[in-house]
Amino acid sequence: MRMKLISTSIKSLAYLSLAFMLAPSSLSAKTYAPVKGKIVIGKVYYGMTPSAASSTTKNYMDGQYIELFNQSSDTLDLTGLYIGNGEADSKTLMWNMSRIAETYGDSTITMKQVFRIPASKKSILAPGASLLIANSAIDHTSFSVYESDLTGADFEAKDNAGNKTNNASVEALELTYTAYSAISYMLLSQAGPLQLTLFTATDDQMAAIDTTFQYGKTKGNQYLRIPAKYVIDGIELMNKNYAEDEWKHLYSEIDKGSQICTSFSGEVYYRKTARLLQNRVILADTDNSTNDLAVSTTIKPREYVTEMDTVVTVPATGHLAMNVSSNFRISENVTVTSINATAKSTQLNYLNHQGDSVFSAGSVILTAAPGEYTVHFTTDSIQAKFNSTVIYWLAETPGVAYKKSRMLYKFVNNADSVGFVRDEAYAADNYTSCALGEGEHLYLPLNTTAVSNIAETLGTTQADLKFIPWTGPKADTTGLAAIEEKASDNRAISINLAGQQVGSDYKGIVIRNGKKVINK
Q1: Residue among 310, 300, 309, 304 nearest 292 (CA)
Q2: Neighbours of 514 (CB within 10 A)
Q3: Burial tier of 503 (Cβ tally within 10 Å: 0-12, 13-18, 19+)
Q4: Cys staple from 112: which of 178, 179, 327, 380, with CB 3.0 to 4.6 Å?
């Protein structure tokens, strides 16, 4: 029987060009190129619950589990997906990166166990959903506060030796290879290195995979040498006493770093939330466990962080343009402004809301006293929604942008002026183009009628309206001391009027120790 790759629901034959969307009859070598960002290892309960203080009582490890998470906006079919569990030998016997590179030329990773999501039924995973795989799919909460109720697991790695309690109502995870004939459950090395990978392969490709003994050995345990090119995701965990350059197993293309385990007392290692997309969690996936993973003793199965914080700095002018991809809250001391204008407008219409509400994603301008403010991303219900069709955030690359029948005014925010400047590169006859530089900026793409009406109100002509001043809410910019000052080597830092830290050689007005100073 041929197995299927990770796939989305078949809606069009055009999708067949993608590696995660193939029928068995169309398998080919290039089909199995790594697919990043679709399905990731979202979580692993790697620790254990510490036992009672007794030399005869072992730590409780039956509640270990892993989760796979659907990052994409597609419904995925995970049928036939492989899960690799890396070897965890001693320093002298393990296949670390340098030994693999020397022996096999960076082409392989060693796995002590390989499991497969079985083909007995479709394993469909909705966008933003998790697939939970347990060693023992029972309720473990009676043993410890660290443990979870795993009765709702999607699959169970059955213990054929009877040392763990199996749940007959949960489908078995298929064990396709193990280095230890007596162990059929997921052997997650709770006190040593752990490498988990997801990969895809056909039956023929799996049959062609070689094995290898422990490093330097010619007999004993044998591990599967999985071609690195089959891997679509991987994470690596290490003991705090391990040096990464000596113990790391996974190539940087799979995992550039690792997460260091500080103890083994009920820890769950989970992916951080990178952002929210229309209330759907998008997990961190930079192929670097050092940055992507976090640890918790309280997070539960299928839970991920749905609220995030980030700090923004309102500069000395009191205004900051910001593009937000998720619903958010901010301090009540901040005015959140969107802008509207129509062809009949004689001025810009500022839509102002006070902070401490839940705002919809979008491009806005913050008005507040200079200083740092925490933007809190949330999935809570929206209380203030921006319906502006005028304000426009553009991630610029050098070149020319075109907006049909529009003049592009860029938001400026400096000591001399706050408002919107028309780029000098606009086309004089039809006003449809704007030269771009590098960066991200807020624009007002206004039609010529609106510009003419606004110009008349300001006592000028359309052609001369190069600048539209800010007439929205004003900030108290006298509270310059609100900008946090930090000392370094007993010297105060300097901040320019744009709110940026500058060096001692900066010329002009700076803020130092809460005061304006002129550097000459």
Answers
A1: 304
A2: 12
A3: exposed
A4: 179
Other CB atoms within a 10 A radius of the CB of residue 262 amount to: 10
Would you place residue 489 in the very low, low, confident or very high pLDDT band (cuts 50, 70, 90)?
A: very low
**Tokens for 45?**
């309960």
435, 423 contact by CB (below 8 A): yes
What does the DSSP 8-state code read for residue 344? T
**Residue entry with tokens 């990043």:** 36
What are 183-242's pLDDT values in tens digits? 999 999 776 789 999 999 999 999 999 999 999 999 999 999 999 999 999 999 987 767
Give 367: exposed, middle or buried? Use CB within 10 Å, 0-12, 13-18, 19+: buried
Residue 138: closest CA among 159, 123, 124, 118 = 159
Q: What whole-number distance in Å separates Cα of residue 284 and Cα of residue 328?
A: 19
User: 308 phi and psi, to 5 degrees?
Assistant: -135, 160
The tens digit of pLDDT for each residue in 341-353 reads 888 889 998 989 9
Q: How far is CA 135 from CA 138, 223, 354, in A?
A: 9, 21, 50
pLDDT tens sequence across 428-466: 555 556 656 556 788 888 888 999 999 999 999 988 898
Q: Measure the CA–CA gap between 392 and 420, rounded to whole angstroms.
A: 12
Report the amino acid identity of residue 445: P
pTM of the model: 0.62
Burial of 33 (0-12, 13-18, 19+ CB in 10 A): middle
